[in-house]
Design brief:
The protein is α/β, with parallel strands linked by helices. The protein contains 10 helices and 8 strands.
Amino acid sequence: MCNCHDHDHDNDPKFTRRQALTGTAALGAATAATFAAGAAEAQTTDPYAPPAEPALPPSDMVLDLARTALVVTDPQIDFLSPDGVTWGVVGESVTRNNTVENIGRLFRAAKAKGLTVAISPHYYYPTDHGWKFEGALEKLMHKIGMFDRKGPLTLDGFEGSGADYMPEYKDYIHDGKTIICSPHKVYGPETNDMVLQLRKRGIDQVILAGMSANLCTESHMRELLEQGFEVAVVSDGTAAAMLPEGDGYLAALTNFRYMANALWTTDEVVEKLG
């Protein structure tokens, strides 16, 4: 290796790239150590609490109510009621976040301001049980009859079933103004008319809440972001299952913080709308 000073190493692309890679690696190691220490400390207090010293830039999302919609995924009995088939695994998270009441507050505040409100429900019809391959959660949902309806053209047996909406939301959903989208079939809105309905109303900002945090809610967030919407997720307007495979709510919070344009509490949303 040359030890002379005649070469301009600053203009040597190999040299600068090597320096950058070394510096980046060192920074990454230091950052990882800091995050690990912070995570360990958080685990001793509240694992869901916002980081004390965030590394990512703060949100600069400002609502323009004429262009804003409240979107609620799966506001249904099977996810949010003790009578629902998933309560045994989501109940703790729903209760801790006060999710049912918070979604109600979001509906009430949005309606009071005349916002566009849309729900993206999840239904399965008998023909959907003929699928030849499924992911783990799809298999479980079909096995336990989650969101089952007798058919797309009948409401026979719908009232009060697990696919029905929570009773406390029905006045908001059935007011003749709320958009009730066609059902999504797995997790995201790619299989329903959510994006079309929002675009046709000139909406490009979304306040997103509903169930379940790391499944349908996160999938809606991802697709809406890809479609060019500005998305604020309501952190306590959602919840998720807690299984041996992992804490779904904690997993979703990480991705909400990484990707959403904003992560607000219900109190913050109500204040912004008020």
